[in-house]
Design brief:
Elements: H1 10-20, H2 25-34, H3 46-59, E1 63-67, H4 73-81, E2 87-92, H5 95-107, E3 114-118, H6 121-130, E4 137-142, H7 149-159, E5 160-169, H8 185-198, E6 203-208, E7 214-219
Helix pairs in contact: 2-5, 3-4, 6-7
Bound molecules: S-adenosylmethionine and calcium ion (CA).
Length: 220
């Protein structure tokens, strides 16, 4: 028994995957194609995709928001868990990255559920708010540029209904958050973001050490 979270060795991580990962073939192939890219580390891990899909099922979410889509793995994980009339608005700035996603979304039969919005995500979110979509979303996943995390979070809090769930990725930033020699913009932004959420009375909070650290915030 233990009173703290277990440290995952490589062997334990492999074991965990061997007894729990159920990655559909289409997601595996998208992961394999993304692995050929220099930026492949931006993709969430497969067990995180499965966890997020389970959260979608548990919360009964049907209207979702994603900020940072890249080659579409997390959006596809969420879309596959949505009900027939479910939708995900997926925000990214890169035509190049997101064009890789589309054949996989089609192959999985969920292309019609994924509404890709290309452009700076702060602008896309402001347009959604201005268009009266405040409180219309059940679930949001924040995984774009780290310096804008607080801006994305404030807007996601507007867009998600009371009781809705906001997930925020990379909140442990490969351990850099506790490395005193790291004072780059991204690391400082994530530290400031984590500190801000720690005392935010508008949410119930849990930081889950899956992937690179995933914050779960339920809007009160
Ligand atoms: N969630 C994705 C996945 O699991 O595969 C990974 C997202 S990746 C970490 C971050 C993405 O944010 C990149 O695709 C990048 O193009 C996008 N991005 C960076 N700055 C952005 C901005 N200002 N607005 C919208 N998207 C942005
Ligand atoms: Ca990420």
């Amino acid at each position: 028994m233990s009173s703290r979270t277990i440290v995952l060795t490589d062997a334990l991580y492999e074991y965990m995957l061997s007894v729990s990962l159920r990655e559909p073939g289409v997601l595996r192939r998208l992961r394999e194609e993304t692995a050929k890219m220099a930026q492949h580390n931006m993709q969430i891990s497969p067990e995180q995709g499965q966890f997020m899909a389970l959260l979608v099922e548990l919360t009964g979410a049907s209207k979702c928001l994603e900020i940072g889509t890249f080659t579409g793995y997390s959006a596809l994980s969420v879309a596959l868990a949505l009900p027939g009339d479910g939708r995900i608005v997926a925000c990214d700035i890169s035509e190049e990255f997101t064009s890789l996603a589309k054949p996989y979304w089609r192959e999985a039969g969920v292309a019609g559920k994924i509404d890709l919005r290309l452009g700076p995500a702060l602008e896309t979110l402001d347009a959604l708010i201005a268009g009266g979509e405040g409180g219309a979303f059940d679930f949001a996943f924040i995984d774009a540029d780290k310096v804008n995390y607080l801006g994305y979070f404030q807007r996601a809090l507007d867009l998600v209904r009371a009781g809705g769930l906001i997930l925020v990725d990379n909140v442990l930033w490969h351990g850099a958050v506790v490395d005193p020699s790291r004072d780059d913009e991204d690391t400082e932004a994530i530290r400031a973001f984590n500190r801000a959420l720690a005392d935010d009375p508008r949410i119930s909070l849990s930081l889950v050490p899956i992937g690179d650290g995933l914050t779960l915030a339920r809007k009160r």
